[in-house]
From TrEMBL:
GO terms under biological process: carboxylic acid catabolic process; glyoxylate metabolic process
Domain 3-hydroxyisobutyrate dehydrogenase-like NAD-binding: 165-284
Pfam families for this protein: NAD_binding_11, NAD_binding_2
Protein name according to UniProt: Tartronate semialdehyde reductase
InterPro entries: 3-OH-isobutyrate_DH-rel_CS (IPR002204), 6-PGluconate_DH-like_C_sf (IPR008927), 6PGD_dom2 (IPR013328), 6PGDH_NADP-bd (IPR006115), HIBADH-like_NADP-bd (IPR029154), HIBADH-related (IPR015815), NAD(P)-bd_dom_sf (IPR036291), Tartro_sem_red (IPR006398)
Family: Belongs to the HIBADH-related family.
């Protein structure tokens, strides 16, 4: 089996890396946080002292980091992947970052003969654990075909989209849709509560109708139980919406509702709620309505 490098063992990266071990891949890992590294070591992964060493020790390197600057630092920075990677190695960045940043990083690593795919995911921690993520991939189709089975150990739906950066364009579309869904359900549930109609009953009544959705079923029960431990942090969703706004500005697309959603998430972030799950968006509407 090929040796895979894995950098970024957070909420998503840790279970994804575990699934690769389960599938029989040899793994070499690195994270700035020693705790998940220790956990992976106990399961049989090797540890590297930095990203450059991961790149030296593995054939395919996966990154699962918060945002564009983190991926740039891990790939292009001191002791980064590019320092350790030889021509022929493959980089798969599974983080959700700005599409323009994916293209910039891919161009830089190509100068050293390293090929890159951007392959962000959707589905959250539960699907990362089950290995049933949706993975949206940008880059050369031939390269995608080479790593499709590897990605299949982490995801149920693995779809090639187009050239590098298009995986992250798709992820921005996904994040706009998810944010606006959570905002809509939050506003609606707060309205019901303020009028005096039990939000639990409203959810039970509407989930089988046209308003039913994967987002509603994933988030409404957590909102109703007031469970706001992440999951997907508001600060990360805000990062995605800002990347969407930046991309919209570049291409002259006025993202009116994404702009409003960005304001909502920014207000929550500024009041210390950035590390809560994005289900806590409901608190913005509760505060507005005095619930
Ligand atoms: P996280 O903050 O839990 O994990 C990020 C990990 O990267 C941390 O362990 C951190 O120590 C490590 N890290 C940061 N910079 C590093 C560096 N330079 N070198 C080595 N390690 C470094 O984040 P997460 O929730 O796992 O999300 C990761 C990515 O996946 C983000 O882009 C996020 O938007 C996306 N995503 C998250 C979810 C979710 O539900 N959490 C779902 C889909 C996509």
């Amino acid at each position: 089996m090929q040796k895979i490098g894995f950098i970024g063992l957070g909420i998503m990266g840790k279970p994804m890396a575990k699934n690769l071990l389960k599938a029989g891949y040899r793994l070499v890992v690195f994270d700035m946080n020693p705790e998940p590294v220790r956990e992976l070591t106990q399961l049989g992964a090797e540890v590297a002292k930095n990203a450059a060493e991961v790149a030296r020790e593995s054939e395919i390197i996966i990154t699962m980091l918060p945002n564009s600057p983190d991926v740039k630092a891990a790939v292009l920075g001191q002791n980064g992947i590019l320092e350790g990677a030889e021509p022929g190695k493959i980089l798969i960045d599974m983080s959700s970052i700005a599409p323009g940043a994916s293209q910039e990083i891919a161009a830089k690593v190509a100068e050293k003969g390293v090929k890159m795919l951007d392959a962000p995911v959707s589905g959250g921690e539960p699907k990362a654990i089950d290995g049933t993520l949706s993975i949206m991939v940008g880059g050369e189709e031939e390269l995608f075909n080479q790593v499709k089975d590897l990605l299949g150990c982490m995801g149920k739906s693995v779809v090639w989209i187009g050239p590098v950066g298009s995986g992250n364009v798709t992820k921005l579309a996904n994040q706009i849709i998810v944010a606006l869904n959570i905002i809509a359900m939050s506003e609606a549930l707060v309205l019901a509560q303020k009028v005096g109609v039990a939000p639990e009953r409203v959810y039970q009544a509407i989930r089988g109708g046209l308003a039913g959705s994967t987002v509603l079923d994933a988030k409404a029960p957590l909102i109703l139980k007031r469970q706001f431990a992440p999951g997907f942090r508001i600060e990360l969703h805000l990062k995605d919406l800002r990347n969407a706004m930046e991309t919209g500005n570049q291409f002259d697309v006025p993202l009116k509702f994404t702009s409003l959603a960005t304001e909502v998430l920014q207000a929550l972030n500024e009041t210390g709620k950035g590390r809560l799950d994005h289900g806590a968006i409901v608190q913005y509407f509760e505060k507005l309505s005095g619930v």
